[in-house]
């Protein structure tokens, strides 16, 4: 297609067209005429949503570069444009002038590989400022002297991603002019712009900021320096980040996620208004700050994959984290104990996950002090010898994931205490040398879902058929398991799943013959073996 053929579409005379997508094939070879084609496909300025994907012209056409500018009285701007997405326009070296689009709310620039600088042209200032005039966005302009003007007056979301050569994102500045920039921007994401070294510092209404895979810390400092309205900050893959205080300047922050920051050593100063704190794969972080107990509004605390993390310090006699609802600690190799003070009288806690901490030996808490606890996961902590007590007093607990423990009697104690509880779902993890299930399990007749993982028995006990409320049964990584009990009495059982049980897999099919276990399970509507449905209900 060439320009003349594209012009036959006559898009500029279609005022009722609201949305338009221009997309080319992602893999193309040889010469292309994308620039001419897109020049000929100029739409009517009433357009509200434009998406451009896989455009590989060396530059954007003139109508596109100047869609926000009124350079001559006969030219019309795209004043109704609300959403604009430019995706994988790999060859373009400049972004269009968009700052004076009065209705633009969502802007995505993704995969503009050759763009090195976002500067005055992006805002529609500089060389074009002398031609600006009064417009619907409320700008007041003159041809000389100081100017008061709003740029990106309606923009709420801005995403810059996968721009590997972007080095500079400049402030909106021009001689003798003052601009109000991004007055309504709430959501800013900068992802995989590894070479970026600078960014603007004026985001008066910014609420959510995500920064991912940027080598330098300075752009983050600049953005956060005046961001007094920020409520959510997510930083991922930031090598230069060592202290959270280097970037935080907002006591109103409610959500902080720090992920894959290998040199982070201190999160002190994250703000007393914080409601959510997630620290993921920050391998050099050793501890939480000693004043963590002062975060009285904290509802969610997650620490995962911090292999050198050692402790959570709660000063003696201090009660903190009183609003905590969700706690997850996982894959922390050097963690040996959790303080009992951390969870004393936490009436709001409903989810507690402690898993895959190989050196955790002590977890002394009384579940009786957690009256709202619904979900408890305490598994794959093999050295754990001191387990929580009070399982027989947690009437709210409905889901439990436990084991294996160094002392196998710990599992028996837990199951014995559960006999009169409200637990509906149980996931029990055992050792390969465990040749039988805990007998206490047979008394949990209220169970609706049971998951047995990693046991070494050859056969499941006959009393499994006494779990008359069972609706779902999952068997995984039981390498020696060959035989099942009769399950005809389990009238409510709707689902059987078998994973990584090679001997049972061979026997639990309808075509196995006399050695098949099929007759024991054929009444179950849904049977899945190694992610393949052998039998599936049509209902």
Structural description of this entry:
- Among the domains are: 1-185; 424-539.
- The protein has a 21-stranded mixed β-sheet. Strands 5-8 form a two-stranded parallel ribbon. A two-stranded parallel ribbon has the order 6-9.
- It is built from 8 helices and 27 strands.
- Helix 3 (62-65) links the parallel strand 2 and strand 3.
- It has helices spanning 3-7, 34-40, 62-65, 120-123, 218-225, 409-417, 502-507, 518-521; strands at residues 19-23, 49-53, 83-87, 106-110, 117-118, 148-151, 157-161, 168-169, 178-181, 187-191, 208-212, 232-236, 255-259, 276-280, 300-304, 326-330, 337-338, 351-355, 362-363, 375-379, 399-403, 425-429, 449-453, 472-476, 495-499, 526-529, 532-535.
- With 539 residues, the chain is mainly β.
- InterPro entries: LRR_dom_sf, LRR_R13L1-DRL21.
Summarize, please.
9% of the residues lie in helices and 22% in strands.
List the defining traits of the structure above.
539 residues; mainly beta; globular; 21-stranded mixed beta sheet; single chain
Topology overview:
Blueprint: H1 3-7, E1 19-23, H2 34-40, E2 49-53, H3 62-65, E3 83-87, E4 106-110, E5 117-118, H4 120-123, E6 148-151, E7 157-161, E8 168-169, E9 178-181, E10 187-191, E11 208-212, H5 218-225, E12 232-236, E13 255-259, E14 276-280, E15 300-304, E16 326-330, E17 337-338, E18 351-355, E19 362-363, E20 375-379, E21 399-403, H6 409-417, E22 425-429, E23 449-453, E24 472-476, E25 495-499, H7 502-507, H8 518-521, E26 526-529, E27 532-535
Parallel strand pairs: 1-2, 2-3, 3-4, 4-7, 5-8, 6-9, 7-10, 10-11, 11-12, 12-13, 13-14, 14-15, 15-16, 16-18, 17-19, 18-20, 20-21, 21-22, 22-23, 23-24, 24-25, 25-26
Antiparallel strand pairs: 26-27
